[in-house]
Amino acid sequence: MTVTKTQLADAYAAALTKELGAEWDCKFSRRDASKFLDLLWPVVSELALKDTQKAKPGSVPLGPLGRLKMRYKEGTKARKGTNPFTGQPATFKAKPATLQPRFTAGKALKDEASKYFKKKMK
Length: 122
Prior knowledge:
Low-confidence stretches: none
Structural class: alpha+beta
Largest sheet: 3 strands, antiparallel
Number of strands: 5
Number of domains: 2
Mean pLDDT: 87
Number of helices: 3
Strand content: 15-25%
Radius of gyration: 22 Å
Helix content: 40-55%
């Protein structure tokens, strides 16, 4: 099942209301949770890109969920090769250097996935 942004906002609003509702004396709506989520993404991406270096790209911890790391991928030069289907000589285009985000799941998320899988397989 793929979760939509609306479903994520509903779940996040319920969690915020459960954890902070009594303390802050309010009930969080889907709209409030959606605003929180919209504010979270630029902060995480800015932090991940902040100290990006070729040797050691930046990373952002996301609590027990995992860690978001930026990976530097070197560019490639144009090269000659052979089309495997026709056997004709071909030239492959050069690719520029890029930064790619990588997510590494944390131990807590891996443990939850393992428990869920074992429960489903019984």
